[in-house]
Amino acid sequence: MAELSARKEITVIREGERRLTDDEVVVEAPLTIYLNGRELVTLLCTPDKLESLALGFLRSEGLLNSLDDVAALRLRDDRGAVEVELKNKGGLLEKLYGRRTITSGCGKGTIFYSALDALRSSPVRGDSVTLTAGEVHALMRELQERATLFKATGGVHAAALAGGGKILIFCEDIGRHNAVDKIIGECLRQGMAMEDKVLVCSGRLSSEILLKAAKLRLPMLISRAAPTTLSIELAQTLNITLVGFVRGRRMNIYTHPHRVIDARNA
Amino acid sequence: MAELSARKEITVIREGERRLTDDEVVVEAPLTIYLNGRELVTLLCTPDKLESLALGFLRSEGLLNSLDDVAALRLRDDRGAVEVELKNKGGLLEKLYGRRTITSGCGKGTIFYSALDALRSSPVRGDSVTLTAGEVHALMRELQERATLFKATGGVHAAALAGGGKILIFCEDIGRHNAVDKIIGECLRQGMAMEDKVLVCSGRLSSEILLKAAKLRLPMLISRAAPTTLSIELAQTLNITLVGFVRGRRMNIYTHPHRVIDARNA
Question: Whole-model pTM?
């Protein structure tokens, strides 16, 4: 079975002190489900219990009801795929479903993670975009102070766009991905450039969030929460600075730490 | 603009004491995006900045690049819809995209929230399935103790199926929805009945999680995190007991509290 976590070299800043170390990061991997020989969906997931994930997904979608409906179930670990053959092929739901390709991922799953996407998103510049560690912490504090809907309900994610060390746009949504899409839409409507800004999130930095940012040439993402192996690898390739676990007086910088500078050099 | 949160009457159990009160719950609402007159996608979201959400979603999906591509943008608040007309109609991406209907939601969005879904999921029975408050807390403690991947990485959700006050199946995944689908798949493979079991989650109880459970006739969901208005309304209709914010010595029971019994009556 695939490993579920991986050691990544990171830069930790704690109480102003910067040091290189390594940290355990959760593995994010694509799983493509083939139903009766046809590609149905690609999920971004933690690569274990993959046959169960495929069966459960098909059950949730109403494409099968019990194991009795299944003629064959094959894990193609090398290809990140599960093949499911139903006894009763070509049912109505399968026909309806067969007409769509859905990519789900852990979040709002319509951004297909593929080499293509990574290639289309060529490396970002924005190397002049820098923040001091103090500014990173201040942005995260402001994000939390402004999260009034979260304070009232505990049920939403917050996202913000920052420039010049200040939050310029702030959104909350029950969906991590929706919150970021709202930020993007606000930028479009205000005609605001994004390639010199920083995305501040309350939620996890999965590959889909990273790709949203990469498509907008955003050079830096910071979050209170964890990244995944896939988002770190994409950020590395795309020259994006990924900062996670921004809490209290510490943060983890997973890629391109040059954009987080010491106050004394600021 | 629509309200972003609503007061819901709940039963709070704290330190063994049970009382009726009310609590602020985040509103979850469907937003359907029409592109050039054709239904493209339905997102489950927090109903504000809806035009920005639609624009940002289309930008993230590569269906537009800037506001210059947009001929018209109309919010149909009454119908929970945003209509977007592009200047350049019938582009390749739109053609490709037009062939699929994606439902996204805040999570893995392929379960379309619709009246249909609610109807298909007729009310569950399972009124004999009960837990004491102590058993609810014990299940949540066990979920957290077993969440070794979360402890190592901080980047995953946990889900479990419990019966007779014990955890029978446990899964972790970067995706809230994946974790639940893994549980469902494990049940199918083990031939385990679900209509007398309890679903235990670390993550938020959105409408899509609720509908997954309803389709399996699960009578009770408990979570450390928050529900949404939509999941509460569905649980109410479907006779499902929804318990949220199970933390320390307290919990909030949002619907059908009769399944959480006093120890002395147990």
Answer: 0.89
- How many domains is chain B partitioned into structurally? 2
Question: What's the CATH number where A103 sits?
Answer: 3.10.20.10
pLDDT above 50 (res B100): no
Closest alpha carbon within chain B to A28: B174
Chain B residues in contact with A151 (beta carbon < 8 A):
none
Q: Report ipTM for this prediction.
A: 0.89
Q: Which domain holds residue B244?
A: 131-265
Closest approach of A266 to chain B, Cα-based (Å)? 32
Q: At what angle do helices A50-60 and B176-190 cross, to 10 degrees?
A: 100
Q: What percent of chain B has pLDDT over 70?
A: 87
| Last residue of one domain, picked from the residues A81, A116, A151 | A116
Last residue of a domain, one of B116, B147, B169: B116
Residue of chain B with shortest Cα separation from A208: B60
Residue B201 annotated to the active site:
no
Check if A118 contacts B (Cβ < 8 Å).
no
Chain A residues within 8 A of B66 when measuring between CB atoms: 188
The answer to whether B61 faces chain A, any CB pair under 8 Å, is yes
Distance from CA of A219 to the nearest CA of B (A): 16
Average pLDDT, chain B: 88
Q: What are the pLDDT digits (tens) for B10-39?
A: 999 998 899 999 999 999 999 999 999 988
Same domain, residue pair B111 and B54: yes
Which tens digit of pLDDT belongs to each residue from B253-264? 999 999 999 776
If you measure CA to CA, which chain B residue comes closest to A111? B61
pLDDT value for A97? 58
Instruction: Render A49-116 in DSSP notation, one character per residue.
Output: SHHHHHHHHHHHTTS-SSGGGEEEEEEEGGGTEEEEEESSTT-HHHHHHHT--EE--SSSTTS---HH
Q: Is residue B119 within 8 angstroms of chain A, CB to CB?
A: no
Catalytic pick among B45, B106, B187, B201: B106
Q: Same structural domain for residues B225 and B156?
A: yes
Distance between alpha carbon B52 and the CA centroid of its chain, in Å?
A: 23
Within 8 A of A204 by CB-CB distance, chain B residues are: 155, 174
